[in-house]
Recover the amino acids of this structure.
C-alpha cells in the first residue's frame, strides 16, 4: 500500500490504522487491536485539540 501523508490536524497513528489494513490482518476474529484500544481510552496525544467556534 502506498504511504499516505497524514493530513494536518489528524493523528498519524489513527490515520495509519484506518488506511493500512495490513496492520489489523494479524488479528483474529473479534480481536481488538491493542494500539487502537489504547488510543480510544487515552486519546490521541499527538494531536492538539481544535478550537471550538465559541472560543
Amino acid at each position: 500500500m502506498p504511504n499516505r501523508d497524514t493530513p494536518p490536524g489528524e493523528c498519524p497513528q489513527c490515520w495509519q490504522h484506518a488506511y493500512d489494513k495490513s496492520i489489523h490482518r494479524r488479528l483474529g476474529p473479534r480481536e481488538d487491536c491493542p494500539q487502537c484500544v489504547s488510543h480510544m481510552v487515552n486519546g490521541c496525544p499527538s494531536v492538539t485539540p481544535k478550537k471550538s467556534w465559541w472560543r
In short: DSSP finds two helices and no strands in the chain. The mean pLDDT is 80.
